[in-house]
Amino acid sequence: MADGSNRGLTKAEVEKRIHLGQxxxxxxxxSKSKKEIVMTHTLTYFNFLNLFLGVLVIISGxxxxxxxxxxxxxxxxIGIAQEFKVKKLIDKLSxxxxxxxxxxxxxxxxxxxxxxxxxxxxxIVENGDQVCSDxxxxxxxxxxxxxxxxxxxxxxVKKKPGDxxxxxxxxxxxxxxxxxxxxxxxxxxxxxARKAKTxxxxxxxxxxxxxxxxxxxxxALIPIxxxxxLSQSRVEGSTFSxxxxxxxxxVIGMIPxxxxxxxxVSFILGVGRLARKRALVxxxxxxxxxxxxxxxxxxxxxxxxxxxxEVVEVEGLGDVESSQVETVMNEVAFAFDDVNNTQEALxxxxxxxxxxxxxxxxxxxxxxxxxxIRFADKGCYVLGAPEFLNKDDEELSLKVEGYSKEGLRVLxxxxxxxxxxxxxxxxxxxxxxxxxxxxxxxPEAPAVFEYFRDQHVDIKVISGDNPVTVSQIAVKAGLxxxxxxxxxxxxxxxxxxxxxxxxxxxxxxxxxxxQKEQIIRAYxxxxxxxxxxxxxxxxxxxxxxxDCGIAMAxxxxxxxxxxxxxxLDSNFACLKNIVSEGRMxxxxxxxVSSLYLTKTIYSVFLCIIFILxxxxxxxxxxxxxxxxxxxxxxxxFILTLEQSESVNSNGFLRHVLRVxxxxxxxxxxxxxxxxxxxxxxxxxxxLTYTLNMLIGGMVSIMVVYRVCMPMNWMRRSLFAAVLIxxxxxxxxAPGFLGIYPVFRWEMLLAIPLACMVIVCEGIxxxxxxxxxxxxxxxxxxxxxxxxxxxxxxx
Length: 794
Hints:
One of its GO terms (cellular component) is membrane. With 794 residues, the chain is an alpha+beta fold.
C-alpha cells in the first residue's frame, strides 16, 4: 500500500522516537508487577491492625498469645508465592495474545506489537482491526469505523483521507493507511479511560459482598475495640495485661483475614489453572461471572462450526449460465482487501484473473450483509445475503430456503443498476446466481452442548446467517431447542417487548451487531447471568456488555480487547473445562466462607454483649488461634482444593448465611449460658475458660460438619482430622491453652452443655431456613403485584 512518497519511517527515525519516549506504551497490563504483588499482600488494613494488636500483646507480656501473627505472616507469604507463580505463566500467555499492528517502515511491511508503534508510523488497518493509536487517514479503501466504545454511537462512520482515526475504535468494513499522531497515554482512548471505563467489568457478586462485609467490619472494629478494652479494664480483678489480651482476642475474632486471603488466592490460582487450560483471564472477576452464567450466547461460525467454509455449488438463475456467474466471481472474489472466512472460501473456489478494472466498491459489513463493486465498462455487481438483496422474489426465496434447510449457506450474486459509496446502498438488483457454501460442524459440539444442558445453562445461538440454516446446524450439533428460531429482522425495537420475546427462542438469525447487544441486555434484564462467545468484529458490542465476554485468540483484535477471557486455542470445546474450573473455584469459596464468617459474626455479637456485661471476654488469643487452626484453617485449605462444581444460584451471601448465622448464634447463646452458670462453680475463672474453649470448639466443629455435607470419603476424613487435632491440643497442652486438664470431674458439666448446643443449633438452622423461605415468598409476592399493576401478569 506504500508508494514512493509513503515509505514510512526509517530505522534511524524509529530509534530517535523511541529515545524520545514517543512509543505506544500504555499501562494496562493484566498482571501486576512483583512490587505491586508484595504490597497487595503485605500493606493491608488488616495486616497493620494485626501488627498493632501484636504490639499490644507484647506490651502485656503474655507472649504465647501472639501466635496469631505467625498465621498472618504465613498467609501473606503463601499469597505472594502463589501470585508470583501465576504472574510468570500469565506474562508468557500475554505475549501470545498481544495485539499486533501492521506498519510500513523503509518501504516494507512489518507486523509488530502495538507497544512498539511510534509517532508518525504509517499504520495499515483492515476489517476487524482495533485502532491502537490516534491517526490521520492517508488512504481509505471503503473504510468504515465503529466508534461506539468511545462515543456510544454504534452506527459505522465512513473515513476519508484527512479524517481522524481514534484509538479504541475498530474497523467494520474496508481497509486503509493512517499516520500515527498520538501514542501511549496521549491517545484519545487512554485519556477517556482515565475518566471512565469503556468496557463493562465482569460481575462478581461474591467479591462485592465480601468487600461490603470487610468495609463494615473495618469501620466497626475500632470503636468496638476501644469500648471492649474499657469494659475489660473494669472487670473485677483484671490487670492491665489481662485487659489488653482479652481485648485483642475479641478484635482478632472479628477480623476475617482468612476470608480475604482465601478469595484472592483462590482467584489467583484459578487464573493460573485456567491459563494451563489455554484460557487467558483478563479480569479475575470473570471466573465467578463465568461460573454463574445460566445463559450462554454463541456465534455459529468458529464455535458450533469449524469456521472452515467450502463452496459446494455455483448455480445460475434465469437465463444466466453458471459459467457467467463463474466469470464475474473470478473478479469479485479477489477485488477486496478485507479477508474473512467466507472470502477465503471464495478465493479457493474461483480463479484470479485481474482482467477487469475496478472503479469503485462498497466493502462488506455486518450491518449491510453485502458488498458491491463497479468495474470499468463492465457494470455494477453485488454479493451478499439473498434476504437483504431480493426480498420480493418468491421463487428465489423458496430455492434459498431449500438450501438453508440442508444447513447450507447461500450468497446471491446480482447485477445492479447503481451503487452509492457514500451511504453504501445499491439499486436495481437483478439476481444472476447463487453461491452455495458448506460449513462443517465441530465433532465435539454435541458433547459440549450436553455438558451445558446438565449444568442448567441455556445455549443461545446468535448469528448473522440465515436463521433456517443456523437452526439446522444447531439441531445437528445437538442443541436442545435448536428448532426454535427467529429472523432478527422481525424482532421488536421496543425493549420491553424484546425481553418477553427472547425467552422463546434458542436460535437468532440475520442478527445485526447492535441487535446482538440488545439481545444480551434483554436476557440480563430477565435476571440471567449472560456469557457471550464470539470472535468477529460484529461480536464486539455483545462481548462488551455481557456479564462474561469470551473471545477466540484467532479472532479480531477488537473482540480480544473487550473480552474478559480469551481462548488461546480458539476452540469452543475447551469452554467446557473452563466453566467446570470456574464453578469448582466459586463452589469451594462459597463453602469455606461459612467457616470464616461464622467466627466474624459471633465475635461481633460477643464483643457487644461483653461490653454491656462488663465481664471478661470468654476467650484469650491462644484459644481462638487453636480453634481457628483446627476448625477453620485446615478445613478451608483442604476444601478449597476439592473438585466440585455445585455453584449455588440463590446468591453468595444467602448461601453462606444459611450455615454461618445459626452456628454463630449458637455460639453466642452458649457463651451467654455459661456466663449465667458461673456462680454455680463459684466464679472459677479457669473452669469458665475451659468450658468456653470446649463448647466454642464444639460449635466450630459443627460448622465444619455442616460445610462438609453431603459427606464423601474425603470430607469424612477431613472431619475426623479436625476432631483429632482439636482434641490433641486440649489433651496434650491444656496449660498452654489456658485451660484445665479435661480429666477433672468438673468437665462432666460440658456434657449437658454440649447436648443443649446441638439442640439449639438444630432449632436455629430451621428458623433461619424458614426466614429465608418467607423472605423469598414475600419478594415474589411484591414482584407479582408490581407486574400486575404494570399490566403484565406474566
